[in-house]
Each structure stands twice: as C-alpha cells, then as structure tokens.
Amino acid sequence: MFFSDIFGQQQLKTKLAASVNSGRIPHAQLYSGPEGSGTLALAIAYARYVACIGEKGEDACGACSSCRKFDKLSHPDLHFSFPVNTTRNVKDPVSDDFIQQWRAFVLENPYFRANAWYNHIGLENKQGLINKKEGEAIVRKLSLKSYESRYKFMIIWLPEKMHVSVSNMLLKLIEEPPPNTVFLLVSEHPEQLLRTISSRTQPVRLEALKAEELKQAIGKKFDLPAPELESLVRLSNGNLITVFETLEHAEENRQNLTRFIDVMRMCWKAEYFEVNDWVEEMSGLGREQLKSFFEYACRLLRENFMMNLKKPELVYQTAAEEDFASKFHKFINERNILDFYEEFNRASADIERNGYAKIILFDLCLRMMKLIRK
Ligand SMILES: [Zn+2]
Fold it and tell me: Which residue has the higher pLDDT, 128 or 310?
C-alpha cells in the first residue's frame, strides 16, 4: 500500500509526507473519517513511507528491503492489532491467530467494513473485540527493540473495540511511549474512545471521496457504461465501500444469471452430458456461493411467474434478466412454480448440512428436467 493507492485525500497525503520529511513523526496518531474514505489504507501507507529507506519523493520507493516487506505487510516492525473473537478453530483468540488471513484480506482490498472482516474469519454473528490478552500482546511486542526499521509501528484497527483494561494499558504506553514507537489508531467511531486516549493523539482526518475521485477508483477495477457509473456515484455518497459492494453484487448477479440460463436450457433439452459438466463446474463453488445461486434462482423463477401472470408492476429485473425472461417466462406456471421453489430450497438446505454438492446438484437437475415440461 502506497500513498498512490489511496483514492483522493491528496492534500492530506502531501501534508503527511512533508511532516515525515521534516522529521515530525507524532508517536500517537488517530486516523478517522467517513466510511469508505480509506483510513486503514492511509495508515499503512504512512507507516511504509516512514520505514522506507530508499529514495522517496512524494511516495515510498517501492524497491528497498523495507518496501518489499511492506508489499506483503510482513515487515517485522509492522504490528497489527484488530478485533477478533472465538471461532470454530480458535478458542482464546488474539490478533496473531488471524494475522495471515488479515494480511491477505487487507492486501486484496483495504476498503472494507468491520462485518466483512468478521464474516471472513467466521465469527458468524459475534462482534469482534480487542481483549485483555491482546492488550498484553501489544505491550509485549512494543517492549522489544525494533528489528530493522528505526521505528516500530502498532496499527490498531478499531480501537473503539478495546476492552477497558486494554484502553488503560494503551493509555500508559501513549503517556510514556517506548522509544521509536508509532501508534496508528484507525477508528470508525473516534467519539467512542476514552477522552484520555484521543486527547493524546494527533488527529488525521480523512474526507469523503468526491464524485471525480470515486469515478477514478471505479475505473481502476471496472469498466462501466457512463450512465451506470453516474448513478452508482450518486447513490454511494462518497463511500467507496458501498461502491465496491454494489459492483461485486452486480458481478455475482451476472454470473448467477449465466448459470441459471445454462441449466434451464440443458434441462429443457434434457442434455445429460452437458448437465454433468455444469454440475462439475458448479460443485467447485463454495457453500455460500451455491446458496446465493439457489436464492437467486428462486427470485428469478418468481419474477418469471409474475410475468406469466401478466403482472408487470410486480416484476423487478435487470435489463439482461428481462431479456432472458421475455422467452423463458412461459415455462414457469402455476403447475410447477411451487415444486421449483421446493427443489431449490431443499438443495440449499442439503448444501448447508454439508451434503455432497455433486449429488445434490445432479438430483436437482434431474427433477428440473421434469418440472420444466409441466
Ligand atoms: Zn522503500
């Protein structure tokens, strides 16, 4: 993560780089800003910039030994602390139990919500916390000398999730920081931090992205037609996380539509060999993706049934779905709609119970071959 990877925030980035170059590196900083503004990404880019030992201008060099370790977020003086909780495999958790997953997740896309992280590590419905054991780990890590860099960095993501005992440990550390330690607190709700902590930090405040900056950010990953781009930017309120989620959802919808069209065509033609190939491919998807496909299929069936009933005011489809439905809707009627639902719901429940995906999908197809001709 470089300064150049963070969208917008130009003034702030210039200011941060200038202050580093003039030797001002506040030992406790509080990064905050509207959701989707890039607080975590900026804190990491800042640490990289400070640690870079190559020739740096407005950004870190990208080639020195420090930068190469920052590429993988594995620099030995770069420490992370973030909310976690118990999972199926981890009973008494600290951040380090999840550090590999964390690095991969952040590198993939540093713009995300807390819930996305919690889902990623399998917290199910639990909230993440920074507990006392984690507080002790922070103290221990910072009592060590730095390995390679002049500074050691402790990036605490969501310090508002700290247990009060951790806040107290941190307060002591911020009051009497170990030498060459830089705390970078990255908060979504700075108002929830103890005043005694936030008042001792240097605030780094990000702004919501402007429309032009959002368009640039989107353009880096997706090629959207202009009207779609405009409406996405308008609806996202400067929040890049909303943008990415909307686009991922749209992409998933597109894939699910293709899968649905394929399987319905094969079932209608009773193409057993092709069905078999489709089943092979689908069984490679994860459990959540399969469930999302089943859910999608039920929605599409419902829309097609509504079209068949000539109730256009009840139909909600994208242009591509509508195009397909214009021919397909006549196959979905009062004789088969409920059975279709039942088949997809049963398949979803079987997948949920860790059934064997190939058998579940093949059975589903065999039954649909009959249903579609009803
Ligand atoms: Zn460098």
Answer: 128
Mean pLDDT of 360-373: 96
Q: Judge contact between 239 and 233, C-beta under 8 A.
A: no
**Residue 298: which domain range?**
244-371
Question: Are 150 and 267 in a shared domain?
Answer: no
CATH of the domain at 138: 3.40.50.300
313 found inside a domain: yes
pTM, full prediction = 0.77
Has residue 185 got a pLDDT over 80? yes
Tokens 């405040």, located at residue: 205
Task: Indicate the number of domains in the chain.
Answer: 2
Same domain, 40 and 133: yes
Structure tokens at 67: 């930068």
Which residues, 6 or more positions from 37, have their beta carbon under 8 angstroms from its beta carbon? 8, 9, 206, 207, 208, 209, 238, 239, 240
How many A from CA of 5 to the centre of ligand 1? 15
Residue-level pLDDT at 248? 84
CA of 273 to the centre of ligand 1 (A): 55
The residues placing their C-beta within 5 Å of ligand 1, an ion, are 52, 54, 60-61, 64, 67
